[in-house]
Design goal:
Blueprint lengths: L5 E4 L2 E4 L24 H19 L6 H10 L2
Antiparallel strand pairs: 1-2
Amino acid sequence: MNRLRARVEKGRLVLDEPTTLPDGTVLDLVLDDEGDDLTEEQREALHQALTRSLDSADKGAVRPASAIIDELRARR
């Protein structure tokens, strides 16, 4: 479960989502509308990197995430 969707009614959060969490579980809900702190230059660099990554994936030049994680761990 990555997110919960709620609506506000009369100043109260109303949540009606199925969950596998046990009864009594307490959750901290956080509004996530802060955006980011990227400058326009950083945002452009990010978009370029994402475009290159998508192009590589379209060409089949991909590796399993587990292999990349193993490689990063081995560098320690």
